[in-house]
Amino acid sequence: MQLLDELKEYLRIDGDDENRSLSTFIQSAQFYLENAGVKQPSDYYLIVEGKDVFAQHRLAIMTLATHFYENRIAITPSTIKTAQQPIPYGLQSMILQLKWVNPDELSVQQ
């Protein structure tokens, strides 16, 4: 599975019409997390001893990409205060937890 396929399943989107936008949202979410100090794994689907090691990384990406997807509105000076939606609170908590994860160390446990 790829992140794009997982996001489409998460958002319940059929077809490929929005693949380009969704891919942009995924990449933006990854950059957002990296800029917040979260190291990204090279394999988001690593399984170690039956455990999905990077599930929380993927959930953070899905949460943020969904936020971008659902808040696609034009921001103008008159709507800036009412139209902006903050990043989901649960994502802030995930980012704090993921900052302490070293994906390289978890990948070596394989």
| Count of DSSP strands | 2
Largest sheet: 2 strands, antiparallel
What fraction, in percent, of the residue positions are helical? 55-70%
Structural class: mainly alpha
Spatial extent as radius of gyration = 15 Å
Distance between the terminal alpha carbons, to the nearest Å?
A: 19 Å
- Give the overall form: globular
Low-confidence sequence ranges: none
**Can you tell me the number of structural domains?**
1
Amount of beta strand: under 5%
Number of helices: 6
Q: Order of strands in the sheet with the most strands?
A: 1-2
Order of helices and strands: HHEEHHHH
Tell me, rounded to a whole number, the average pLDDT.
Answer: 85
Describe the structure.
The structure is a single chain. This protein has helices spanning 3-11, 19-35, 55-70, 80-83, 89-98, 103-108; strands at residues 47-48, 51-52. The protein is mainly alpha-helical. The protein has one domain (1-101). Strands 1-2 form a two-stranded antiparallel ribbon. Helix 1 crosses helix 2, helix 1 (3-11) crosses helix 3 (55-70) and helix 2 (19-35) crosses helix 3. It is globular, with a radius of gyration of 15 Å. It comes from Lysinibacillus mangiferihumi. InterPro entries: Phage_gp6-like_head-tail, Phage_HK97_gp6-like. Pfam families: Phage_connect_1.
